[in-house]
Design a protein that fits this description.
Distance between the termini: 79 Å
Shape: elongated
Number of helices: 12
CATH topology of the largest domain: Rossmann fold
CATH class of the largest domain: Alpha Beta
Radius of gyration: 25 Å
Strand order of the largest sheet: 4-3-5-6-7
Oligomer: single chain
Low-confidence stretches: 12-36, 182-221
Length: about 375
């Protein structure tokens, strides 16, 4: 048994070396060929996948390596070795239930991780496994054998059937991780009321009070930029929070009324807006909301909740799954700065936000100089 596990560990180490050499374990984000050295990727969520089938492990590596730092274990001994040495870094576990050829199956391993395995004669390699309260997803090809209740009692959060739908798995990981964190969604009734200064409508220039607010933000480089994402789809909002919250403070709105409430109370602080065009179920779509923000629509024609929205000249990036319906030139004419297609490429989005903010900062500096 020990020799077989030792051989498995050696094979796993070789495979991990291959994936690392292929650039899949720790990929680099390149900001354009010939424009300087490659920059290291941002720190990724560490996930442990315990799976006895080599093909399944390699498919998981290919499908998840772009978004996660994936650690692989082929059996209970490898899993315990990784948990004992890197347990504090791991944020979620994908656990094959059967684990053929291992001394512990996935259910026993999960009970061990939860601190609930009271069984004499456990292998010595289990002694240093820490108690962890992180999401554990059971993965099995035999879903009918196990009741959800039994797996929950063992310490699992969710069961995923093989073959794994990795898009659904990513969404499920996102949901559970967000439940464990404080999201930055702000309900309208909880928002503090602030006065949001507006540009002078006859010139399109910002008031001196707005310029002062901008200059204060520019003098605090360590402060995260505040971005509003207006999006009707809950899963798209959740993914955006997960992918952007390390670099931005994100406010989310699911419809036009929530967006107007946030803009009316936090408008002076918001530095960019991601605007879904369709906004299904809302009284106002993204284009109408953008016209409102730009001050190019009669406020008598909008719902009462929209009349306190200030006129703003910050970047507005349209986001849509129906890019063929819209011409970017037409969207820029109504007040947009850019259009991005769904599914969102968050690396490209971050670069676009940075570029638009740098461009606007130059304009603000010019206005501050001329306003003195």
């Amino acid at each position: 048994m020990f020799k077989a596990n030792e051989a498995e560990r050696n094979d796993a180490n070789k495979r991990n070396s291959f994936w690392a050499g292929a650039g899949l374990m720790k990929p680099l984000i390149r900001y354009g060929a010939g424009k300087g050295p490659a920059q290291p990727a941002k720190k990724k969520t560490v996930i442990l996948y315990v799976e006895d089938d080599e093909n399944n492990r390699e498919v998981a590596m290919l499908r998840l390596a772009n978004d996660y730092n994936l650690l692989l274990a082929s059996g209970s001994r490898e899993a315990c070795d990784i948990l004992s040495t890197r347990g504090e870094e791991i944020e979620a576990i994908l656990m094959d239930i059967e684990l053929q050829g291992s001394e512990l199956d996935g259910i026993m391993l999960t009970k061990l991780i939860r601190g609930n395995l009271q069984q004499p004669g456990l292998p010595a390699y289990t002694k240093n496994v820490p108690k962890l309260d992180i999401p554990i997803f059971f993965v099995t090809a035999y879903g009918d054998r196990y009741s959800e209740e039994k797996l929950r009692l063992a310490g699992g959060n969710k069961t995923v059937r093989k073959p794994v739908d990795f898009a659904q798995l990513t969404l499920a990981l996102t949901r559970i991780r967000l439940e464990q964190r404080h999201t930055t969604k702000i309900e309208p009734k909880e928002m503090a009321k602030v006065v949001a200064p507006t540009p002078a409508p006859e010139t399109g220039r910002m008031s001196s009070r707005t310029l002062q607010s901008v200059s204060k933000r520019m003098m605090r480089p360590g402060t995260k930029s505040l971005i509003l994402y207006v999006e009707d789809d809950e899963e798209s909002r959740n993914i955006a929070v997960l992918r952007l919250q390390s670099e931005y403070e994100l406010l989310v709105a699911s419809n036009s009324e929530e967006a107007c409430s946030i803009l009316a109370t936090r408008g002076a602080d918001i530095e960019a807006i991601l605007m879904d065009i369709e906004l299904q179920g809302s009284e106002m779509d993204g284009i109408m909301l953008t016209k409102l923000i730009r001050g190019s629509i009669d406020k008598n024609l909008v719902p009462a909740y929209a009349r306190r929205v200030p006129q703003m000249q910050i970047p507005i990036i349209f986001v849509t799954a129906y890019s063929a319906r819209y011409k970017e030139d037409a969207l820029i004419k109504v007040g947009g700065s850019l259009m991005i297609k769904k599914p969102v490429n968050f690396i490209s989005l971050k670069m676009a936000i940075t570029e638009l903010k740098l461009r606007q900062n130059k304009e603000w500096i010019t206005q501050m100089k001329t306003s003195r």
